[in-house]
Amino acid sequence: MRDTRESRLLLVLLIAVAFALITVDIRGGENSPVDGARQAAATVFGPVENGMAAAVDPVGNAIGAVRDSGERHNKIADLQRENEALKQKLGSDARNRSRLNQLDSMLKTAGEGQYGIKAAQVIGIGAAQGFSWTVTIDAGSRDGIKRDMTVLNGEGLVGRVTTVGPSTATVLLANDPDFTVGTRMENSDELGFATGQGDRPLSVQLLNGKAKVKAGDRLVTFGSQADKPFVPGVPVGEVVKVDPSGGDLTRTIYVRPYVGFTKLDIVGVVVQAPRTDPRDQVLPAKPKPTPTPTVTVTVTPPANPNQANPNAADPNVPIPNGDPNGNPNGNPNADPNADPQRKPNAVPGGDPNNANNAAADGDQ
């Protein structure tokens, strides 16, 4: 249809008529004069509408399914996010509990050794393959950290500070091959030098080649001059192997460190050394040996010894002829009821083969 003046007037007229019909329909209510026309239109166009609806329903259902699927996907995604947040929260709580336990253990160690420490967290770890065993902590010069300070945790010696930045510091771990610390053995006070061997036990050279050492003996740090880089009394580890003494001036032993260098988290830097050497006070308490149960069996003898064997001979009565069975003839195989005055039949000529004949003659 061309856009002309007449077409515009017709459009305006149709709109006016539509509004007029709507107004009359609303005012008429149930007795609307256009109700008949509406019913006729419904009769004519109703089947057409149903047919169109039936044809369009699959498309509409598909669209609705897609829409509902999107809503369900969004709900599932929301639930997954909530679950992840819950898991992170639970994991964070477990990690916080672990850190709290580490901090408590470290503060206990510091208290027993009278060490003034600055707590820090490991935020980076150096390569362990072909490079130095080092970690980075989140404390630096602004926190009073200086080079060559002892680093420990609740288990024992961790290492020493090698590099210090404003807010971070690098710690050389005690298991690094370039790490060496003076040690002292518990009780015996034998001195030595421990050197790291990576993931293997520390190698300790004892200055006394004839020192008496056994597996299970424990070592602590001996301490350095002016307490740098090591303060005294920090637990180092436990002896696991002793090389045989070959008459050398020194003796090599191998020590399993107390600290797990692959799972460090909370550590403490000793910023104030103890006034006196704590000696062995910081070492962990030795486990108590488990007692071995002992079973005692007591045998009660009978009141009368003869009751045990009624047929046994009275020990107070002498045994005639030395026969242990009490036979008067002195023959263990003789009949105890036989007449002791009767002599046994003699065998003529001393031939034992004639014994039966002699017995037969006696009967005749």
Notes on the protein architecture:
By secondary structure, the protein is α+β, with helices and mostly antiparallel strands. It is 31% helix and 21% strand. It has three helices and twelve strands. The protein has helices at residues 5-28, 35-113, 355-363; strands at 116-125, 134-137, 150-152, 157-164, 169-173, 180-185, 191-197, 200-206, 218-221, 235-242, 251-257, 266-272. The strands form two sheets. It has a six-stranded antiparallel beta barrel with strand order 1-2-5-4-3-12. The chain has a six-stranded antiparallel beta barrel with strand order 6-7-8-11-10-9. The longest helix has 79 residues, at 35-113. It is elongated and about 130 Å long. Residues 346-350 and 352-364 have low confidence and may be disordered. This is Cell shape-determining protein MreC. Residues 278-364 are annotated as: Disordered.
Topology, please?
Layout: H1 5-28, H2 35-113, E1 116-125, E2 134-137, E3 150-152, E4 157-164, E5 169-173, E6 180-185, E7 191-197, E8 200-206, E9 218-221, E10 235-242, E11 251-257, E12 266-272, H3 355-363
Antiparallel strand pairs: 1-2, 1-12, 2-5, 3-4, 3-12, 4-5, 6-7, 6-9, 7-8, 8-11, 9-10, 10-11
Biased composition (Low complexity): 293-364
Region (Disordered): 278-364
Protein name: Cell shape-determining protein MreC
**How many helical stretches?**
3
Strand order of the largest sheet: 1-2-5-4-3-12
Q: What class, by secondary structure content?
A: alpha+beta
Strand content: 15-25%
Please provide the ordered H/E string of secondary-structure elements: HHEEEEEEEEEEEEH
Mean pLDDT, all residues? 77
**Percent of residues in helices:** 25-40%
Which blocks of ≥5 consecutive residues have pLDDT under 50?
A: 346-350, 352-364
Number of strands: 12
Largest sheet, if any? 6 strands, antiparallel, barrel
